[in-house]
Amino acid sequence: MSGYLQENLTDTDGLHTIGDWLRWTYSRFNEYELFFGHGSDNSWDEACSLILQALELPWDFDQSLYSCRLTATEAAHLKNLVRRRIEDRVPAAYLLNQAWFCEMPFYVDERVLVPRSPIAELIQNGFQPWMGNAPVSRVLDLCTGSGCIGIACAQTYPEAQVDLLDLSTDALDVSRINIDRYELWGRVRAVESNLFSALKDEQPKYEIIVTNPPYVDEEDMSDLPDEYHHEPELGLTAGHDGLDLARTILRDARDYLTDDGILVMEVGNSCFALDDAFPNVPFTWLEFEQGGHGVCLLTAAELDQYKDSFAG
Fold this sequence. Notes:
The chain is built from 13 helices and 9 strands. It has helices spanning about 5-10, 20-30, 45-55, 70-85, 90-95, 120-125, 150-155, 170-180, 220-225, 245-250, 270-275, 300-305, 305-310, and strands spanning about 100, 105, 140, 160-165, 190, 205-210, 255-265, 285, 295-300.
């Protein structure tokens, strides 16, 4: 980093108010051409997210109060956060140890991916129209990471038991922090499992299996911006075409679904590879009003119908 840029990040003596810090952070984020993909998609939203959350202020903080002055301790804290966001390319969610999903705050650190799945919109809509008025007694969040998907499902279905499965013990430790945050130990459990392996003896049946497994292929992995390299590689990479785990999930999911159940699976940019791998399967690719792609849905009946394709 050039001397000018280093000086530009340390010259903060003239910043006194919340508005000063928002403007300065926004300008620096633009100047340093950061990548935004962990909760925001532009410099202004990222600056607001970082500054307001770091100061323990609400999203709807009254702009007339932007003239409030910061203490020296608050200013030093913000300066350090902005420097790390720019110099080290650390995602803001890791700097704050907090990410929002389904309008709920979740604890996160570098043991888990930053929550950002468009599946949030599907959860908030109660998996409609597929679930209709059917009761939901059990939900499985496979490859749970922080637990955000399963915990959000538990909030949507307050009578349901929810299982959070992950291969990573580090990720499960984070998911347990979030279970505790929402006081859901009576209904939500976190289990170490290589996909469905921990369920083989119990053979539970779920109305909903939702999964956001690793799906980044080799080419995309090599091209990821620096911000993504702070995330655990175990949660991202999935072989040359990104489908190493997706194939197994499609093969085995039916064993754990009720007859009227659904499987929701996110594969991101590997959606094209999935269509190519199973050309006879009419995947339902979901569309989202709030943006996002690469999420498919299959009913139990469809998994039965195409089981030979998935078994191969």
